[in-house]
Structure formats: C-alpha cells, structure tokens
Write a structure and sequence with these properties.
alpha+beta, NADH Oxidase, three-stranded antiparallel β-sheet, 6 helices, 3 strands, globular
C-alpha cells in the first residue's frame, strides 16, 4: 500500500474476530516494524510483549474493561526501560516515551498494512497491568493495543475528521 493511503486508511478498531488469531509470521512482520523504529542514540529501550495465552489474557483483560478488547486474540504491550533510554544532559529529559511512541506508531502502521486491526490504548489501569506482567520499577508501559482481524460485518468509517492543514502549520 502507498504510504499516504496507508496512514489515511488506518483507524482504531473496536470489533475483533476472536476466532482468527494472527499467524506467527504476521505477528513477527508487525513486530519487525517496531524493531526497526528509530530511537534516541539508537539505544532501543523497548520490549514488545504479545499476550495471547488465555491465562495471561484473563489477567490483562482486567486492566481495560471493554467487551471489544476481550475479543481480540492478542494484546500487544509496548514497554520501555527508563534506565536504557537516552537522557538529555541539559535538563534530565528521558527519551523513553518518545522512543516508545515512535516504535508503537511503526507497529500500528505495519499492522494496518497487513489488514490487522489495532486501537492504541492509554486508558488502562497501570497497577493491574504491572502486577499481571511482574514489571520492574524501571519499566514503563507506554501503551497497549489489541491485535486482531476485524470482526464479521465490520466496516471502516472511511472519513477522518481532522483540522485543516493550514490551521496546524506555519513557515517561519
């Protein structure tokens, strides 16, 4: 798919077919896009957890209580290690969230290219997620997304409501 067509067609999916898990090959193709994402000083302070087992899904389902979330066959957790990220010397800014945002964007666009639905979720309960995944204090969960094929009868909206381009830029 041509890039501008790809970003134009991507939308958050809230309807998944639980009976159609992704193949290992498709999952790895999507995750490869995250691996190739740029990061500050190329430190790559990330880890991508694909949660598919019923036991772990049951634990993760408690962190975001929406019916459609439970139907996705996989949940991707994008987490980073603050201790491995680049830190700006002038003010101590840690790039982990920027690095993870870039990686997650790459992953979501790669999923769209494969016909796989996603929905970037930040409204999860971090305490439930941290306990379920046994995360260390230096690990940051940046976002989660279901990964799955859209459910039967799903139709994309097709129209994105965005501010006009002329309202969001200026040349200086």
């Amino acid at each position: 798919m041509e890039y501008t067509e790809l970003i134009g067609s991507r939308e958050s999916i809230r309807n998944y077919d639980p009976a159609k898990p992704l193949s290992q090959e498709t999952l790895e193709k999507i995750l490869e896009a995250g691996r190739l994402a740029p990061s500050a000083k190329n430190l790559q302070p990330w880890k991508f957890l694909v949660v598919s087992s019923p036991e772990m899904r049951e634990k993760l389902d408690l962190c975001y209580r929406r019916d459609w979330f439970h139907d996705a066959p996989h949940i991707l957790v994008v987490l980073g290690n603050k201790d491995e990220a680049w830190v700006r010397s002038y003010d101590g800014y840690n790039s982990v969230e920027t690095d993870l945002a870039i990686a997650m964007t790459h992953i979501i666009l790669a999923a769209e290219n494969e016909g796989v639905g996603t929905c970037w979720i930040a409204a999860f309960d971090p305490d439930i997620l941290r306990k379920a995944l046994y995360l260390k204090s230096n690990q940051v969960v940046f976002g989660i997304t279901p990964l799955g094929y859209p459910g039967p009868g799903f139709k994309k909206k097709g129209v994105k409501i965005r501010k006009p381009l002329k309202e969001i830029y200026e040349f200086l």
